[in-house]
Amino acid sequence: MAVLPIRITGDPVLHTVSEPVTDFDDALRQLVADMFETMELAPGVGLAAPQVGVGKRVFVYNWVDDDERLWRGVAINPTLLITPTPTGEADDDDESEGCLSIPGERFGLRRAERAVLTALDLEGQIYEIDADGWLARIFQHEFDHLNGILYADRLDYASCKEVAKAIKKSKWGVPGNSWMPGVDDLDA
Hints:
The protein has helices at 26-41, 133-146, 157-169, and strands at 6-7, 46-48, 58-64, 70-82, 96-98, 106-108, 114-120, 126-132, 178-179. The protein is of the alpha+beta class. The chain has a single domain (6-170), classed as Peptide Deformylase. Strand 7 and strand 8 (126-132) form a beta hairpin. The two termini are 21 Å apart. The model has no long low-confidence stretch (mean pLDDT 94).
């Protein structure tokens, strides 16, 4: 396994719809193993293939809920059904979200409370998870990555202005920027 550099906003792979996985082979298994290692070292609760420069419809997740149940897996060629997103302003405490591709920044973002993830595992077997709360949020965030959407693209106007300033100040927003978990200290 290997830790992979995480692409920062502005890299074209982060802003492009990913291609479906067609080969369930050793290369895919290696990518997924590397993604888990990268996510854990970052640290994060999810990581999508575009974030490590691979334009494929794959994400990994690793999160422990309030009941101390571990949710860990890989979603390949996922679909996601969500309940309607609540209206109104996001609660910055309860709905604060960050992204390893915009390291160090967090903003309140409304997300659907429930999501049904249907995906393939590494053996190409279909599975389904009916998620709520933070697990539903994680699935929505990572699924967005597969569609070329960063959470900053969904922020309200005031937060969009703030994140744009942070991106400009850090000289991100252009191709070629990345950071290495375990090496770079970017307060991800």
